[in-house]
Amino acid sequence: MNPQPLPHDLPLQLPLPEGLVKHLLVLLFLIHILFVNFMLGGQSLAVILEIIGLRRKKYDRLAYEISSTVTVSKSLAVVLGVAPLLAINVAYTTYFYSSTVLIGFAWLMIIIMASAAFLLTYLHKYTWESWGGSQRALHLTVGAAAMVLFLAVAMVFITNINLMVLPAYWPRVAGFLSAVLLPSALLRYFHFILATLAISALFAAGWFGRKGYDLARLPDFTRTEVIALFLRIAFIVTLLQFVIGPSLLLSLPVHGHSLAVWLLLLTGATIAGVMAWIIYRELGRAPAVLGRSYLVMLTLLTFTALFMAYGRHYYRERAVNPHRQAMMAKTEAFMWDAKAAQTRARMGMTREVYKSSGEKEFKANCAACHAENTTIVGPPLTEVRGLYAGNPQNLIAWARAPQVKRGGAPMPSFNHLPEKVLQEIATWILEGK
Amino acid sequence: MDFPIFHLDFIGNRMLIAITAIVHVIINHPMAVGAIPMATLLEWIAHRKKWSALDDLAYKITFVFFVITTSLGAMTGVGIWFTTALVNPDAIGSLIRVFFWAWFSEWVVFFLEVVFIMIYFLTWKPWSGEKKRLHLGVGLFLSIFSWLTMAVITGILGFMMNTGKWVPFSYEWVPESSMFTAFFNPLYLPQLIFRTAVAFLGAGLFFLFLIPFFKKLTAEVRGRAVRPISLWVLAWLPVAIAGAIFYWQRIPVYMQANAPVALATQDFTRWYQTILWFLLGMAAIVPLAALWGVVKPKRLPAAALVIPFIAVATLLGTFERLREFVRKPWVIQGYLYANGLRAQDYPLFKEEGVLSRATWVRHHQVTEENKLEAGGELFMLTCSRCHTVGGVNSVRTRFQKLFPVQKWDEEQLAAYISTMHNIRIFMPPFPGSDAELKALSAWLAANQHYAMRAEGGQTALLPSAPVLK
Q1: Is B359 on the interface with A (CB under 8 A)?
Q2: ipTM for this prediction
C-alpha cells in the first residue's frame, strides 16, 4: 500500500459514544440526502419537462408543479444537512478536514454555487407566468443554470467523501481535479445522480398521484397518465443503476472490502431489483389499479437505501480503521510527551537567570527593538539614558504613549503593562538593576 | 500541524472568514431573528385596526426577507462552517467536540424554525378572517424559535473569547469540563442582551429601508407603518446601549487593548478616536430618524430611511470584525491559539520543535541544507493563519515598516520574533525550537527584496512523511 500521512487526532474526548455518533451520521445523512434528491432531481425533472413543454403545453404545467416543490425541498435539504455535518466532524475529524483542505477551492465554491442556485430556483419559480413568449428561453436558462449548479455542488461533496477514506492517496492530490480522477469518485457520482432521478421520480408519482392532489392544476392529464410517466422514469433509471452499481463496487479500492460490506450492498441491490420488477409489473396493469403497490415500492426503496447506507458505512470503517488505530496510538504518545514537557517547564528546568525582574521584563518587552549600543528598531539604551537619567516617570509616560519623534517606524504603546512592571523596566534601563 | 494547510496568499485567510461571518450576521440578525417579531407586530396592528393595506405591506416585506434568509442567509451560515473547516480545522473541530450537543439542539430548533417559517409565510394569505389569530400565534411561536437559535450560538461565540472556568477534558474528566460551564461563560449574558436588542432594532430599520421601494403606497399607509416601527426601534435602543456597555466590561482587559488595532489596523491606530466618533455619530442618526418617524411618520424622507439602515449594517459589521479580532491571539481563550496550536503543547514544541511533530511538512529537522525550505514551512505553520507573504497583512510589509533601511538579518528578526507576543499582544508566541526560530528568521530575511512563494495544501503537492506503511 502507499505510504499514508499520519496526523494526530484532536486531544478532546468525543461528546458522545463513538458508535452512537456513527449511527446518527448514517441515519441523519439518509434523511438529508432524501431532500437533496427531491431538490436536485426535482430541478432536473422540471427543466427537462419544461423543454418538452415548449411543444406540448401540458408538460409545462407539470414542470411548474414540480418546480414549486423545489424551493421547499432545498430549504429542508440545507437544514437537514447540518446534523450530519456535525456528526461527520466528530466521527471522522481528521479524515474529513484533511480531504476538505485538499480540495479547498472547490469546497469554497459550494457556498457561492449553492447560494446562487437557491436564488435562481426562486427566480425560476416566481417568473414562470410572467416570463412567457420571447423570454421563455431566458426562463429556461435560469432553471438550467440552477440545475447545473446543483449538479456541480453534488460533485464536490462526493469527491470529498470519496477522498476522505483514502489517506493513501492524499499526498498525490493537488487540486480538485486530481481528486475527481481518483478511483471510484466519478462512478460514485453517476450512481448518486441516477439514484436521485429514480427517487424523485418515485416521489413525484406519489405526490401527483395521491387522492388529495387537485388534478385541475394539470390540465389534460389523467391521474394514471401522471403516475405511469414517473414510474416509467424510475424504472428505466433503476435498470441503468444495475450497470453503474457493480462497476462502482469493483472500482472501490480494495482495502475497504469485506464480506459484510458485500453482503449489505448485494442485499440492497437485490431489494432494488425486486422493486424494479414490481414497478414493471405495475406498469402493465389496468389504469384503474395503477399505483396500488406504491406503498410496497416505497418500503422496498427505504430498505434499499438503508442497506446501501450501511454498506457504505462499513466500507468506510474498514478502509480507515488501521489508519485510525495508528493515529490514536500516535496521539496518545504525543499527549504523554507534551505533558512531560509541561512538567519540566513548570519545574523551571529551562528557566534563564536574570539579575532582576526588570531585566526579565525588558528582555521580554523591549529587547526586540532596543539594544545597549546599537540601533535596532529603536534607539540604543545609551541614548535613552542620556535623555531620561534620573527621570523614570517620563520614561514610563513615553512607554505608555510613545510619539513619532525620529520619523522611522513608530514605537508601539505599552499601556497594557501594569505600572509596577514599567517601573521595574525603567529602573533596569536607567540604573542597571 | 495535523491538517494540510489551506492558504490564500492574496486576501488572507482571516478575511475569508470575516466576509462570510459579517454577511451572515448582517442578514440573519435583523432579517431572521428580528424581522419575525416585527412582522407579527405589524400584522397584529393591521388585524386589530382592520388596515388591510398594512397587512399586505408586512407580507411583502416578509417575502423579501424570506427569500434572502432562506438562500443567502442559510448558505452563509453553513459557509461559516465551511470556511473555518478550511482555515482552522483545529479550532472548529475542537469547538464541535465541546459544543456538539449545543449545536445539535440548535439544529433541532433551526429545523423547526424553517418548517414554521414556511408555514407562517405560506399561510399568511389563506389564513385570514377567523384564522388570523392562529396565524399570529404561528408568528409568535416562530419569533421564539428564531431567537433561540441565536441564543445558542452566542454561548459558543462568547466561549471563544472568555472560557471562564472551563478546562479541557483531554486528560481526565473534571466537572469544569462540562459543556454547560463552557456555554454559560462570563460573556454569555451581556452578549445575548446586546445581540437581541441589535437584531430587533435592526429589523425595524430594515423594514423602514424597504418601505420606499413600495411606490404604490399612499402617504397614509406609509405613516401607519412608519410610526409603530419607529417606536419599536426607539424601545430597543436603550437595551442595545446597556448591553454594549455590559459586554465591553466583561471582555478580558488585555483583549480590550486590542481594540484600536482591530478597528483601525496598526498603521492607523492614531485614527482610533476619530473612527470611534464617526461610528458613534452614525449610531446617533438612528434615534434621530426614529424620533422623526414617531412624530411625523408621513413626512419621514426616504433618505432618513436609508441612512440608519446603512448605519446599522456598518455597526453590525464592525462589531463582528472587532469580536473576531479582540480575541486574538486565541481562538479558544487560554486553550488554542489562532495558529491552531494548543498552549499546553508549547513546552514540547520549545524543546523539540514543531516540525518534528508536524504531519504535512517535508522537513522534520532543521539542517544547514534545508534551512530555507524548513523556514517556509514554519511560516505556514505558525504565521500563515493571520499573515500572507504578498497580500493582505503581509509579513514582508510588516517587517519593512520595522526595519525600513538596514539589511534584514537572521539574528535581528529572531530577536524580534522571540518576544513579539509581549509587544503585539494579539500575536501568539512563536512555538518552535531555537533552530526553528533561526530557520524562520532566515526565510523571512530572504523575503526582504522579493516575496517567496506561499502555496496552500489545496494546490500544492504535499509530501507523504511521516507515514503509516
Answers
A1: yes
A2: 0.89
